[in-house]
Amino acid sequence: MERKLLTLAVVCSVLAGLCAVPCAASDSATLTVKGTVGSACHLGDLSSSQIDVGQLSNNTDGTLAAISGTPGTTITGSWCNTGSKITVVASPLVALGFAGAPPSGFTKAVNYTASASGWGSAAVSDTTLGDSSGAESTSHSGSQTLNDPEANAITVNLAAFSTPSSGDRLVADGDYEGTITVTLATNAAGSP
Amino acid sequence: MTRAAFRTLFSSLALIAMAGSSRAQIAPAIVRAVGSANELCALAAPQVNVGGASNVGSVAGSTVSIADLSDDQTLSTKATDFDVRFAALCNFDHRVTVSSDRGGLWLQGGSAPPTGFADAVPYQVAFTWADGSQALQADAASEGEVDAALDVNRPAFGDIVLHVHVDQGATNAGSGAPLVAGTYEDILRVTLGAQ
After folding, report:
1. Residue A103 · residue A87 · CB < 8 Å
2. A43 Cβ under 8 Å from any chain B Cβ
3. How many other CB atoms are there within 10 angstroms of residue A175's CB atom?
4. Phi, psi of A187 (to 5 degrees)
5. Which domains does chain B have, with CATH numbers?
6. Residue A14, SS3 per DSSP
7. How many Å apart are CA A95 and CA A172, to the nearest integer?
8. SS3 state at B125
9. CATH value at residue A143
10. Residue A48 within any structural domain of the chain
11. CA A41 – CA A78 distance, rounded (Å)
């Protein structure tokens, strides 16, 4: 009965800091508190999920127009609490309304370079490799690893538009479309 | 007994911390890139192949002058041939139309010709484009527009080639009829556009 009462008193001291009776003068206790924070990354929201390049062809000879000033889009609120890897994969702009392969000298695909900047000191870029039908025979991507945690906005821009062969004329279509996929992942080799 | 109590407490805290750090799959950000290419047809100025022509006198801009429309001996029509090329482009399914404003080479002005004389010369225009071909018959049966069209169900670029041919002795008053003196004229139009 006495042993049970002593145990109750110690527990009371630890949990509540209260002791109705004086504790033993030489007694001590150590409490180690540990926690774990898992590695995680978060991609924020896109300011716009679409980049409109506008008119792609030259209205004089039907070749690729000089394209500049294409608006970008920004992914805000992204972070990784450890080392990270950002990857960009782009696909060519392809005329979705044009069935089959285009005639010789024409193209239904426009290539470009997509870049993602703001995540680390250097931009990550990927250049599409579509043929005149829009098919890509080689897989490609651009990536970069960061060793430290990062929290920043990522801006996606398109540039360096080109046709599969120089001087290709674009088939008429109101719906050329491609995609840019940005992926963020924890990097096991990074810190902590 | 006291240590056992601590261990129990610590275990509980650690368990809570681990639950808060579970990792989730990160969805990629996908951006659509969009654009468009307008429908476009373009046609350059005509280029007359004088070197391979017969009975062509001069070319000035888009006007081809036949050297001698009538034969000096018969006074009827003298055969004529020439080619005209137009650099062209259409980036969609399209139609090329060749039209004759008057349906033949007709005498400018004047009244009806005397019996036995002709005041018009028929001719043909064979044209090729994008692996297709068509022919316009400007038969001078009556004065008025005639057309010939060729549909091309794909984009194309290159040269539209017109071969203009006038038969020896061809007139609207029968083969070999003499032509009334004067200027004979027609306008050929080449049009590229939607079907």
Report:
1. no
2. yes
3. 14
4. -110, 115
5. 41-193 (2.60.120)
6. helix
7. 8
8. strand
9. 2.60.40
10. yes
11. 8
ipTM: 0.83
Query: Is residue A21 in a domain?
Result: no
Instruction: Tell me if B155 and A173 make a contact (CB, 8 A cut-off).
Output: no
Place of tokens 């209260």: A18
Q: Residue B94 is which amino acid?
A: H
pTM of the predicted model, to two decimals?
Answer: 0.81
Q: Alpha-carbon distance A115 to A157, whole Å?
A: 5
Closest CA to B130 of B176, B161, B98, B170: B161
- Using a CB–CB cutoff of 8 Å, tell me whether B25 touches chain A: no
Q: Is residue A4 assigned to a domain?
A: no
Out of A35, A62, A73, closest to residue B40 by CB: A62
Question: Is the distance from CB of B132 to CB of B164 less than 8 angstroms?
Answer: no
What are A118-140's pLDDT values in tens digits? 999 999 999 999 999 999 999 99
Instruction: Give the nearest partner residue to B33 out of A7, A171, A177, using CB atoms.
Output: A177
Alpha-carbon gap, residue B126 to B123, rounded angstroms: 10
Identify the domain containing residue A93 by its residue range.
41-186
Query: Is B10 close to A31, i.e. CB distance below 8 A?
Result: yes
The structural domain count of chain A equals: 1
What CA–CA distances, in Å, run from B164 to A77, B43, B172?
A: 70, 19, 18
User: Which tens digits make up the pLDDT trace of B90-113?
Assistant: 999 999 999 999 999 999 987 889
The answer to whether A60 contacts chain B (CB < 8 Å) is yes
Q: Does B13 touch chain A (CB under 8 A)?
A: yes
Token output for A16:
């509540």
Q: How long, in residues, is chain B?
A: 195
Q: Determine contact, residues A72/A155, Cβ cutoff 8 Å.
A: yes
pLDDT digits (tens, 9 = 90+) for B12-61: 333 333 433 334 458 899 999 999 999 999 999 999 987 789 999 988 88
Please state, in angstroms and rounded to a whole number, the distance separating the CA atoms of residues B74 and B143: 24
